[in-house]
Amino acid sequence: MKNETYLGIKGHVICIDPVTGQERWRRPLKGGHLTTLNVMEETIIAHTKGELFGLRRSTGEILWCNPLTGLGYGNCIIASNDPNTDVVIAAQQQDASGAGAGAY
For the residues 60-88, what does the mean pLDDT come to? Predict the structure, then answer.
């Protein structure tokens, strides 16, 4: 599958068909508001609630989990030096009222 869109949202990774908008698969991970993704050729790397997960890109199957012991639950930016990698960087910003302003 080369024609897909991935969402990282509230501790889930979701694969969407960008033509039809239909959900292909959904993988719940851990509860969390921010889920950061790095989409590689065969694997999706996802971070949520202090843990890092490797998912099979075609099915969403969890291949591995790294609890990132001692690093807490902060936001995570995932980067890669693989030229075939799509990086999605998500960050929460606070507006003046303290409400979340969105994700990038």
Answer: 79
Beta-ladder partners of 31? none
pLDDT value at position 66?
A: 94
Residue 6 contacts residue 44 (beta carbons within 8 Å) = yes
- What CATH number corresponds to the domain at position 59? 2.40.10.480
Tell me what pLDDT residue 20 has. 94
Q: Is residue 13 part of a domain?
A: yes
Amino acid at 27: R
The model's pTM is 0.75
Residue 99, both tokens: 């409400």
* Bridge partners of residue 86, in order along the sequence: 39
Residue 80: closest CA among 89, 72, 71: 89
Nearest in space to 82 (alpha carbons), one of 43, 34, 24: 43
Separation of alpha carbons 30 and 28, rounded Å: 7
Report yes or no on 30 lying in a domain: yes
